[in-house]
Amino acid sequence: MASTLLALDADALAEWVTTHGGQAFHAKIIRSNVLERGVLDYGQMTSLPADLRAALIAELPILSSAETTRTVSRDKTIKVLLQFPDRGGSVEMVHIPPPDKADTRGATLCVSTQVGCPVGCPFCASGIGGLERNLEAHEILEQFLIGRQVGPLRRAVVMGMGEPLLNMEAMNTALAAVHDEMGLGARKITVSTVGFPDRLHKAARQKPRFELAISLHTADDAQRDHLVPAMEGVAIEDILAAGDDWFEQTGREITYEIALLGGENDTPWHAERLAERLAGRRCMVNLIPWNPSPGMNFRRPELGTPEAFRDDLIARGLVATVRWSRGLDGDAACGQLRQRVKQG
Fold this sequence. Notes:
TIM Barrel; ten-stranded mixed beta sheet; two-stranded antiparallel ribbon; 12 strands
């Protein structure tokens, strides 16, 4: 039997409830309280019989994870390290408030799909130590619940630890609950991937309930083999063709992401090459100046370089933005908090 509430689907929860003296409709009340209303304490579910509440408290925890570490940055970005005692491993979740304090629409939540990461990008701390395991659907889903406890959510990005398309079934199950029961619309959820073409073609035909971002990082094949080792030998044109297919199947434009590394992929030549690759494609480009991580032999771009790169792309007909990192003083880049805690 599953050890937590969220690990049970609707039928399994109804069965659990009836075997513990409740009625099948009580299962719907429980799930509605948790997912729609954000109630994470059975004791507050007073519409349930007292004996059933007692059984739930004693035998069926709502969450499988425990918060072990929390950092709060000067810009109020909150990063939480979640530990999974039963199955092992820890992941990061980041709650990013709007940059404008007067904006009351809610925060952006960044969630993880794997413990560790198999992609091995040399500039990202998530891949240090490789992949430990995939998260189960309920372990992904509960990050949204915990994030909502931190504060109201406006949108979410699946850009935390792990490669989402390598755990697509669990991710899709979790996002279905986020959409249908938590009320966060598909256009308010973005999934970021390094772009496995076969998986992108498959996802495009599954009526995806999310927007898509592809972490391209460079328009040069040889350099991408180095920056994204798991994709070595996969031609950039094949990834872009899969992106074109995504647009044709879904009608949704793709965002191509470039983590700008000082002196590595942020030169005018790189901007020109990227513009050539993306010419005529329905997309936008998100430039992300690298967030420094201890022990990694990279540096942030020089002042003004990201904006110059952006302006080069715009002059060549592309839509481009610069997204500066939030939470720089709070280990907010992927994998940093987990590594710091591991190292003591």
